[in-house]
Amino acid sequence: MSTQQEQPQEPESQEAPEDPEMRGTESPQQERLKEKEQGLAQEEAVDESDLEGETVHLKVFRYDPEVEGKQEPRFDDFYVPFEKGMTVLDAVMYARDEFDSSLTFRHSCRQAVCGSDAFFVNGKQQLGCKTQISELKQPVRIEPLPHQEVVKDLVVDMDHFYDQMHAVEPYFQQEELPDGDLEEQRQSRENREKVKMSTRCIWCAACMSSCNIAAGDNEYLGPAAINKAYRFAMDEREDEEIKEHRLRIVEQEHGVWRCQTQFSCTEVCPKDIPLTEHIQELKREAVKKNLKFW
Amino acid sequence: MAEQYSSFSRGGTGWLLQRITAAFLIVVLAFHFFQLHFVNHAADVTFAGTQARMENVGYFLTMVLFLIAGAFHGLNGVYNALVNQGLEGTQKKVVLAVLSLAGIALIAQGIWVAVAMAGWT
Amino acid sequence: MSQSYNRGLIEDFGRWKEFSAGMWAWIFHKFTGWMLIGYLFTHIAVLSTAIGAAAGDPAAIQQETDVYTTTIQGLESLFIIRVLEVGLLAVAVFHILNGLRLLMVDLGIGLSAQDKSFYASLVLTGIITIASVPTFMDGVTI
Ligand code: HEM
Ligand code: SF4
Ligand code: FES
């Protein structure tokens, strides 16, 4: 059922670094991978055979303002036969295909790339396709993302999230191009390393949903948008002026200063982006920039 | 968005000052607790004893700075907490005005008290 | 945020069992911060008796019967005030220790240990508070 595979790691560069120094240093990325491997080892230790032949009990949030019987939000129970490697997404798809075709949720890639299926699973924002049923306590409670308008069942309105993402101008801006038609805009290996984690965002909005400041202050840019701004502000290929422009966007009153370092975004991000770290770095950059002007 | 080139944006100044006052307060608050509960017992405080401390200009200035830093840090913290909860528009301006006035009143009253303690009235 | 179906604040906080360290730290920091600013106002109000004492009879100051001295010593003789003072100490110590933790986080130091440093703040606050009880309770009975 599941077409899940081990996620291919992003290639670090075209050729493996020859320089032993480059290889020897523990980049934050390598540290994270190590942590992850340890995590995986633990996860594998969970005995899947316990669940073999069992059914999984799902409690799925139902709500549809357009259908009379569903205007009052409720939870429906589904009992889905467990299969090895079954994810939350697999389970709700089974429930939809076999039991209730009106059960509505978004999904597409089924491999943590498209960012459409962030749900609130057992009280935590998680990607349906990246969350193993075998790791969850039963009954598995599946709800739409909190702090966003519910359109229907597990589908939430993403407009506000996308607006905040677009507000930081999430595209590369560089007027000056290198001479020569076929010349590339090269980035140094170190600089790529620096922005690497921030480039991984899949716009799933899990972070925004977990943030209780974003819940209170509707104008707050939110972790994902600030991380986007970080991705470009730290890219050395853009001019200094553009960097300043980007810093001015994130240092608005409803930008980085609203972050209260609760780390909730960092904890839920399915792509392991160190969001809080990036937000804090931008705060310091903004202060530094302003001190320079003083 | 207000474009500001030569001065701190409002949020940034507040953020930085909140941390600078925090760093100062750590030291002074710890000193203050120690001074009035361990070195001198709070129960044994007398006006004469207080005066003996306050007459020292260094101590007086430290206490006044402590007051100013504490008032700013505390009230700015409260203001931030309310903005975080989505306070905006007129309400926000009113809250800012009320908190600023409360802060100024607190500092003025506190300085008056400190001067009286030092016996410079 | 406008919501067609609003799960609301109650449910947000009804989920407190799912809160993580960083969120608890934030809530406690807020709570202790508000207590401290509340206390600062009260504190200045009580100390304002010094204005009356300074303007009053110097002989009273000599005999320790001026308003300032009597107010403070009167308050300090109350058991409940001493208990509240220990509470204040706990609040201040937690705010200081977690404040240090937040300053480190702001400087980008030790971000991966942020949960451990929160637990450390809690434990240290407990220890310091308990260790201070004898000093704070000295010479007062119920
Ligand atoms: C003594 C050392 C102190 C340290 C290290 C400290 C540290 C901090 C820091 C870093 C914040 C910002 C938290 C954030 O924005 O994420 C904060 C908030 C705050 N502090 Fe302090 N502080 C100290 C003393 C005080 C004192 C004396 C008061 C009261 C007069 C106070 C009242 C507050 C308040 C009200 C907040 C805002 C809490 C909120 O967000 O609701 N602090 N403190
Ligand atoms: S930063 Fe992480 S949690 Fe937030 S939208 Fe991007 S991938 Fe999702
Ligand atoms: S279905 Fe694409 S991220 Fe889960």
The ordered string of helix (H) and strand (E) elements of chain A is: HHEEHEEEEEHHHHHHHH
The chain-level structural class of chain A is alpha+beta
Average pLDDT, all residues of chain A: 86
Beta-strand percent range of chain A: 5-15%
Count of individual beta strands of chain A: 7
**CATH architecture classification of the largest domain in chain A:** Orthogonal Bundle
Q: Tell me, what is the CATH class of the largest domain in chain A?
A: Mainly Alpha
Give the strand tally of chain C: 0
- Largest sheet composition of chain C: none
Average pLDDT number of chain C = 87
Terminal-residue CA separation of chain A: 61 Å
Q: Estimate what percentage of residues of chain C fall within beta strands.
A: under 5%
Layout of strands and helices, then pairs:
The complex is a heterotrimer of chains A (294), B (121) and C (142).
Chain A lengths: L19 H5 L3 H18 L9 E8 L11 E8 L6 H12 L18 E4 L2 E4 L12 E4 L6 E3 L2 E2 L2 H9 L21 H8 L9 H5 L1 H5 L6 H11 L6 H11 L13 H5 L6 H19 L1
Parallel strand pairs in A: 1-5
Antiparallel strand pairs in A: 1-2, 3-4, 3-5, 6-7
Helix pairs in contact in A: 4-8, 8-9, 8-11, 9-11
Chain B lengths: L9 H30 L7 H8 L2 H28 L4 H30 L3
Helix pairs in contact in B: 1-3, 2-4, 3-4
Chain C lengths: L7 H7 L6 H27 L1 H7 L2 H5 L4 H10 L2 H29 L6 H24 L5
Helix pairs in contact in C: 2-6, 3-5, 6-7
The structure holds protoporphyrin IX containing FE, iron/sulfur cluster and FE2/S2 (inorganic) cluster (FES).
The site of iron/sulfur cluster has 16 residues of chain A, from helix 6 and helix 8.
Please explain how this structure is put together:
The complex is a heterotrimer of chains A (294), B (121) and C (142). In chain A, 37% of the residues lie in helices and 11% in strands. Chain A has 294 residues and is an alpha+beta fold. Chain A has two domains: 51-147, Ubiquitin-like (UB roll), CATH 3.10.20.30; 159-170 and 189-293, Alpha-helical ferredoxin (Fumarate Reductase Iron-sulfur Protein, Chain B, domain 2). A five-stranded mixed beta sheet of chain A has the order 2-1-5-3-4. In chain A, strands 6-7 form a two-stranded antiparallel ribbon. The longest helix of chain A is centred in the C-terminal third of the chain and has 19 residues, at 275-293. The N and C termini of chain A lie far apart (61 Å). By secondary structure, chain B is mainly alpha-helical. Chain B has one domain. Chain B is elongated and about 50 Å long. Chain C has one domain (21-136): Fumarate reductase/succinate dehydrogenase, transmembrane subunit (3 helical TM bundles of succinate and fumarate reductases, Up-down Bundle), CATH 1.20.1300.10. In chain C, helix 2 (21-47) crosses helix 6 (79-107) and helix 3 runs antiparallel to helix 5. Chain C is elongated, with a radius of gyration of 21 Å. The mean pLDDT of chain C is 87. The interface between B and C is large, with 36 and 40 residues. Bound molecules: protoporphyrin IX containing FE, iron/sulfur cluster and FE2/S2 (inorganic) cluster. Iron/sulfur cluster is lined by residues 201-207, 223-224, 227, 268-271, 273, 275 of chain A. Residues 107-110, 112-117, 127-129 of chain A line the site of FE2/S2 (inorganic) cluster.
